[in-house]
Amino acid sequence: MRGSHLTEPLVMLATVLQWLVLATLTGILVGTGCSLFLRILFATAGHTYTAPLWLQMAVLPIGGLLNGLLLYYGKRQNRTGLKDSVIIAVNEQNGKLPWKTLWIKPVATLITLGCGGSAGKEGPCSHLGASIAAGLGELLHLNSELRRRLVACGVSAGFASVFGTPIAGAIYGVEMLAIGRIRHNFLFPAIVAGVTSYEVSRFWGVPYPKINVSFVGDFTELLFLKTVMIGILCGVVAWIFIELLHGMRRQFTRLRERFGIWPPLMPCIGGVILALLIVVIPNQYMGLSLPLMDNALQGQPMPYLGFLWKALLVAVTLGSGFYGGLITEQFVMGAVAGGAFAHLFGLSPALGAAVGLVSVVAAASNTPIAAILMGVELLGGDSTLYVAGASIAAYLIVGHRSVYPEQQIAATKTSWMTARADVLVSQEKVRLSGELLRWWHERRHPGTPYTADPTDPPEDRL
């Protein structure tokens, strides 16, 4: 026993040193790769804002066709049988990803954003980070557990590089794996990789925006409750966005199957629909829409349905088969919604936009801790209490939905609901708990015994 007490600190020190080396190396590689991608993206995206309308409409179907061809033929290079989802790589594939297809998603994103498709920039960076980390793990012949942690490091490093939020990015890469569970043994490597990637990206000249929204002043319960109301609203916004996104994917799949359409043509069809939509929807909702988000954060008036126009464009873009990220678009929707509805709660539009910015991310991605830390890093420490209340409220309101179908349900968000553990959120139907059903049955039918549903988990059969 005494020997183990003496040995344990040495083992833990070795663990810290091990991950300082592995995670730092991962952060350097991922930061460099993401910086190269971001510099190319900044040079190619956003030009459609100033182009004539006819040209904007013409390039969207062309970009869709190029996206479809790239994804269809490019993924044929993957003969490993492995899926290229970063969540599945950690949860199910022991930290393995197909290496030969690493370039496909970044190139597809450049095409999507270059032609005006509505999507985010972080998706390819998280994929780049995970793939680089998976390749490093294979090169070093690491065991499956170390590879899983290294891939999570790569995801965290990718997010940190994109948003300039090293701590929040690190937590996001771990928290996104499952609803209701954070792997604490992933945290130290993820933070080291995130901080390293962020510093490397700064070294390579990646610019990061500064948000000037003031939360300075004495804390008041009333202001806290008002920001919670913004969080509830953002939870509804996230709910609408998730349903639109998955609904659009189902409709495009049904269309392809019913008429036997060649898969690469589906994004082209999506491009035609987008071209028709931008006739009535302002072009500021196209692409990343970062100028729109900046306007909201500066307190400029936002339309009530602005978040819906953005959600619709993203749903058509990604639902039809274009590739791109999701988080940047959640930022935009949250800022627009928060800015538009802030006056209903007696808040300044800029403050409402700032709170909404991170609340939709907390809800749609089921990452409230990362969202809170993101708020602190982007908005300053004075925002902590307000951002925390809004983010948790949004996270609860959205229920057990997610923009990531591969995300697992580790624990339900309320004791009134039940679900099987470690099942994909897209494959599990969350149900009312046996305890709640029993209480309701006894209220409605006094004296009649309650019969549990045999499909409920054992701990729920009361």
Short structural description:
By secondary structure, the chain is mostly helical. The chain is built from 17 helices and five strands. The model has no long low-confidence stretch (mean pLDDT 88).
Report on the structure:
This protein has 462 residues and is mainly α. Helices cover 63% and strands 2% of the residues. It has 17 helices and 5 strands. The protein has a 3-stranded mixed β-sheet with strand order 1-2-4, with no helix packed on it. Helix 5 (122-139) packs antiparallel against helix 6. The longest helix is centred in the first third of the chain and has 43 residues, at 2-44.
What's the SSE blueprint?
Blueprint: H1 2-44, H2 53-74, H3 86-91, H4 104-114, H5 122-139, H6 144-163, H7 166-175, E1 178-179, H8 187-203, H9 221-259, H10 265-277, H11 290-297, H12 306-320, H13 327-341, H14 349-364, H15 368-379, H16 384-397, E2 408-409, E3 417-418, E4 423-424, E5 431-432, H17 434-444
Parallel strand pairs: 1-2
Antiparallel strand pairs: 2-4, 3-5
Helix pairs in contact: 1-4, 1-5, 1-6, 1-8, 2-4, 2-10, 5-6, 6-7, 6-8, 7-8, 7-15, 9-12, 9-13, 9-14, 9-16, 10-12, 11-13, 12-13, 13-14, 14-15, 14-16, 15-16
For this entry, give a set of tags.
three-stranded mixed sheet; 462 residues; mainly alpha; two-stranded antiparallel ribbon; 63% helix
The global form is globular
The largest pleated sheet is described as: 3 strands, mixed
- Number of helical runs? 17
Radius of gyration: 23 Å
Q: How many strands? A: 5
Query: How large is the share of residues in beta strands?
Result: under 5%
| Helix and strand run | HHHHHHHEHHHHHHHHHEEEEH
User: Gap between N and C termini, in Å?
Assistant: 43 Å
Poorly predicted runs of 5 or more residues: none
Q: Structural class, from secondary structure content?
A: mainly alpha
Please give the oligomerization state of what you see. Answer: single chain
